[in-house]
Specification:
By secondary structure, this protein is α+β, with helices and mostly antiparallel strands. Helices cover 28% and strands 35% of the residues. It has a single domain, classed as Gcn5-related N-acetyltransferase (GNAT) (Aminopeptidase, 3-Layer(aba) Sandwich).
Length: 176
């Protein structure tokens, strides 16, 4: 269905084009970036993936059949001592590509990378409680809600709660 490939500077304009509102930016990244998203912000962020060892892993998702880039996903806040990290900035960019299983495939592949190649023990994520498609995607892969953080994120003039979700290596079943 898809394959994850390293995100590069050439991918920056496409990603900027997908983030077309302040609300989508906050939903995608919390407050990591400012709206409007710019190449400078992404360049600075991309440099974090170029350290040794990388502070984060940034991927684009490419459809195998068409070759079209349809998504973005990251593994960040990597704690190599305690073998844990955070899944973040997950996005199926083109609206017409959503609700087709691409998000689940992306999450499954990055977890195969996290638990297989990196040898992590646990992966966390935060998701806004109203983002039901994302919550369903994460549950389908094996994430469980660990806790709910009330009024955790301000979007416009309203505060929204978030779920912290977690999956451990032994709970994850790679695709066959």
């Amino acid at each position: 269905m898809i394959e994850l490939q390293p995100f590069t500077r050439e991918d920056i304009p496409r990603l900027i084009g997908w983030i077309n509102s302040p609300e989508l930016l906050i939903q995608w990244t919390g407050y990591q970036f400012r709206y409007p998203l710019t190449a400078d912000q992404l360049e600075q962020h991309l440099r974090r993936s170029e350290t040794s060892p990388p502070e984060c892993y940034i991927f684009k998702a490419r459809e195998r059949e068409s070759g079209e880039v349809i998504g973005h996903i990251e593994l960040d806040r990597i704690d190599r001592v305690n073998r844990k990290a955070w899944l973040c900035r997950v996005l199926v960019g083109p609206p017409e590509k959503r609700d087709r299983g691409y998000g689940t495939a992306m999450v499954r592949q990055i977890l195969e990378f996290a638990f297989g190649k990196l040898g992590l023990h646990r992966v966390y994520l935060h998701v806004l409680i109203f983002n039901l498609p994302a919550i369903t995607c994460y549950k389908n892969v094996g994430f469980q809600i660990e806790t709910t953080l009330p009024n955790d994120c301000k979007i416009g003039e309203k505060y929204w709660s978030t779920h912290r979700m977690v999956i451990e290596a032994q709970q994850f079943h790679p695709s066959t």
